Give the backbone structure.
Amino acid sequence: MEYRHTPVLPAEVTKYLSLHPGSIIVDCTLGGAGHAKRIADSIAPTGTLVGIDQDDAALVAAADTLRLGRQIILLKGNFSEIDRLLSEAGIAYADGFLFDLGVSSPQLDVTERGFSYHDEAPLDMRMDPEGGGPTAADIVNSYPEAELLRVIREYGEERWASRIAAFIVAARGRRPIRTTAELVGIIKDAVPASARRGGPHPARRTFQALRIEVNRELEVLEQGLRSALRWLVPGGRIVVISYHSLEDRVVKRVFSELASGCECPPELPVCSCGKEPVLRIVTRRPVVPGPDEIESNPRARSAKLRAAERV
């Protein structure tokens, strides 16, 4: 299957990264190189694009799209490993970082990856299937009910989390849950019929929660943002596109923390904490796609872009 990638908010990414020839830009979520191609064109001929992805299919597709040269460096890994990856690649600093979060279209559409609740496939959901680690099947078959409830409620913001967790535990007591279709059937049984008639697919939130847990997405996101800051030159920018409220909250919290200065009580005449801001928030409100982009690319509907600048 073709590894396609229709970039979300492409013009806004170019604007907020403040691209210019000679820049060193790190695309931490390379995917099909939709954003990377525009970035590479904007920083040519003397700039360097570093693309990071943990999916082999994405790296192969990106290499074909970008037509590798000495100004393009592709690295396999997770963006939580920015320090190691950039050090091994001989990168000394960066002028900008892009994080385009969420699951890419090919990962959703290729049945055997196990991300979709529309087709039957093994319950996997790992971004890097070759990298080891627990699968979604491991989680649904081994987590205690209370822990399943926490994951589904916290990461899926699922109203029926308690019933879904209880139904999963009851079902796995009869036989292990191995496929996406089996899990979807259990979730449909757990969600009352009245709640299934309207709104999104009843399994959507639980599948989101399991994907986040399998890949430690929120933990990895915070680690990646803080790591990127260490490599960013003064005036350099971090741009993040998130697709659900949990990701956006992490980005907003980290940016706010790093943009705040003295935390001493106001009654103290002199600062004793010594804390100074290291970021300036560029987008006070998240930037969202317009109606035309949403119509042409429905997966852009929930996107929010935030940007910050190193001071």
User: Anything to note?
Assistant: The beta strands are 24-27, 48-53, 72-76, 94-100, 232-242, 279-281, 304-310.
